[in-house]
Design goal:
Helices cover 41% and strands 16% of the residues. By secondary structure, it is of the alpha/beta class. Belongs to the AB hydrolase superfamily.
Length: 273
Amino acid sequence: MNSNILLRNNVKIRGRGTRPMIFAPGFGCDQNVWQSVAKDFEDEYHIILFDYVGSGNSDIQAYNVERYSTLDGYAQDVLDVCSALDLKDAIFVGHSVGCVIGMLASIKHPEYFSKLVLVGPSPCYLNLPNDYYGGFEKEQLLGLIDMMDKNYIGWATAFAGTVMSNPDRPELKRDLENRFCSTDPIIARQFAEVTFFADNRKDLAKVKVPSLILQCSKDVIAPSAVGEYIHKHLPDSTLKMMKATGHCPHMSHPEETIFLIRQFLDEIPINDL
């Protein structure tokens, strides 16, 4: 069973340390987006990388529409990996929707986790009438899903530019676009719907693991108001506004990302916002 789980999620283990450190990608990406960051921690940590089912080199035959109809299915995959590897007190580093997946996993089994690093998190992407600003109107997200249905390659090109938001570095946009295009379009479409229409705001108060929120500048996907909202409602959290722009600092600004993660792990005081 353990080997099946590791194959299902294409789990890769590296590093020379003993303390586990799990890296979770965001929507439409595989574990390779963490390469620049994860390798910096290999001397001190036991690095665990994985792919969501339907992304990267995961077992696409393991995809189940019902299981992955909510983010809880993806969180269960993380817990399955933790159980298969007999992990305890792991550091979880997640990007975008991977942050919420990690939070949900920590709520169910907090013993697996000691700290959460949340890079560009958002508990809800919708603007809602009760004064919550998630960044998107419902019509915008419906349009995004519709474009995925009608022209997946065109969607990948446009969305990669929006997500990366570093126009002076076109190679980053191409990298992200290629990652989107390597994901099964049908699975990506369902994952997008699950991601962008989820509302996990009520789950924030249930998280008991100390957390670092890394909020990028000029992030269209998870605006600064979202980071501030999470910090306000997430117990034992620290919010750090990054100099990095866009939504993928682990790809565009790995040095700053590494520095801030190390500060948090080494328990060096960070100027909380």
